[in-house]
Write a structure and sequence with these properties.
CATH superfamily of the largest domain: Type I PLP-dependent aspartate aminotransferase-like (Major domain)
Number of strands: 12
Strand order of the largest sheet: 1-7-6-5-4-2-3
Shape: globular
CATH class of the largest domain: Alpha Beta
Bound molecules: pyridoxal-5'-phosphate
Length: 394
């Protein structure tokens, strides 16, 4: 390990993203970890703890990223990489006991909700969905008077795409009181903006596809925990269910992670500027961004996040005979610089009307457009939005 946990804890995250997960400083050793492509490893004795054995059990290219992510989340153990964010969701949900109770935000990532719903339909678990920003409603679902207490609380904050903010400290304490473990999907924030373990979560989940890798060129997921028992169960699930990361993707993810702090700094600052300017615009009927002082989640977000992220949502007003949804589509099609595409967290700015996805719940307004702010110059991003908004006049 190039950077011990104690060193990582004493350094700022901006430094850890650069310094973590490097090879030992041996003479002529590479300063970057090599990409190891091998499905098997030499060995003749009995396979035991720590043996690499076979490519589904472990790969040296996973280790530096897992080490770095564990240190960034402030965990006592390295993270676990997965083939995708949803492979990590599948592993995390395996921690719910048979016919146990899962409490999940009604605006969780759509794929996570679909997976939990299908598990519930098969009778594997009981699913209770709830508005995660409504603390009283969550407490009621965690430990209903006279009902079965929950086994797992799923947290996502800010939620996707409504950007609702959960009260972490209250909810994690209540979940533990009820005997539930807490899993937090921290994809939108990254450990640089929000540290769920410090706020009481037991497991942190990432779609590494997004900010951590940061260049929209890999699909990967990860889990992080400080609990050795939970980590062993998750590792076993990954090995047996097979949702492992490709070594090249893992290598690219670490390369992307090196610039995370710079990317977040720029994109958060730009998102704040754009949210302010869009708020006053005649073609926009609403802006959701926890960084706006008028946002309902602002005070809560400020108390538990180091910044407000770089995803914002706008609602497009009806214009020139178009419904709000049609005006939103026209806006997205009228942009030159912003890329009309799903996903988020890359260097390039992405924009999409969310209800174009048929799986998106009805509670997401038809005219809601999600913006993932990248690292381009903010005035260029604004100029492009301004010209496409102006085109709605005609
Ligand atoms: C994208 C995403 C996921 C799923 O990750 P994949 O890498 O696409 O499998 C899960 N949660 C959130 C918040 C996401 O944005």
């Amino acid at each position: 390990m190039s950077l011990t946990d104690a060193q990582a804890a004493s350094l700022s995250a901006e430094t850890v993203v650069v310094a973590a997960g490097r090879p030992p400083r041996d003479r002529d050793a590479p300063v970057n970890p090599p990409l190891v492509l091998s499905s098997t490893y030499y060995g003749t004795g009995p396979l035991g703890d720590g043996d690499r054995g076979y490519g589904r059990y472990s790969n040296p290219t996973w280790d530096p990223f897992e080490e770095a992510l564990g240190q960034l989340e402030g965990a006592e153990l390295p993270g676990l990489l997965y083939a995708s964010g949803l492979a990590a969701v599948s592993s995390a949900l395996s921690l719910v006991p048979a016919r146990g109770v899962l409490v999940m935000p009604s605006h969780s990532y759509a794929g996570s909700l679909v997976m939990a719903t299908e598990m519930a339909e098969k009778g594997f678990l009981e699913l209770r969905t709830v508005d995660i920003a409504d603390t009283g409603a969550v407490l009621e679902q965690l430990a209903p008077a006279g009902g079965t207490p929950a086994n797992m609380l799923w947290l996502e904050s800010p939620t996707n795409p409504m950007l609702g903010i959960a009260d972490f400290r209250t909810l994690t304490a209540a979940a533990h009181e009820a005997g539930a473990i807490v899993v937090t999907d921290n994809t939108f924030s990254t450990p640089l903006v929000q540290q769920p373990l410090a706020l009481g979560s037991d497991v942190v989940l990432h779609s590494v596809t997004k900010y951590l890798s940061g260049h929209s060129d890999v699909v990967l997921g990860a889990l992080v925990t400080s609990d050795a028992g939970l980590r062993a169960a998750l590792l076993h699930h990954r090995t047996i269910h097979g949702g492992i990361a490709g070594p090249f993707e893992a290598w690219l993810a670490l390369r992307g992670l090196r610039t995370l702090a710079l990317r977040i700094e720029r994109s958060q600052a730009s998102a704040a500027v754009l949210a302010e300017r869009l708020s006053g615009h005649r073609h926009i009927s609403g802006v959701r961004f926890p960084g706006l002082v008028t946002d309902p989640g602002h005070a809560r977000a400020a108390s538990q996040m180091k910044g407000f992220g770089s995803v914002l949502c706008i609602e497009v007003a009806p214009a020139a005979g178009l419904s709000g949804a049609d005006a939103a589509d026209r806006l997205v099609q009228g942009l030159d610089l912003w890329l009309p595409a799903t996903s988020l967290g890359g260097v390039e700015s992405l924009i999409e009307r969310r209800r174009r996805h048929t799986a998106e719940p009805d509670s997401v307004p038809e005219n809601l457009v999600r913006l993932s702010v990248g690292i381009e110059n903010v005035e260029d991003l604004w100029a492009d939005l301004e010209q496409a908004l102006k085109a709605l006049d005609s």
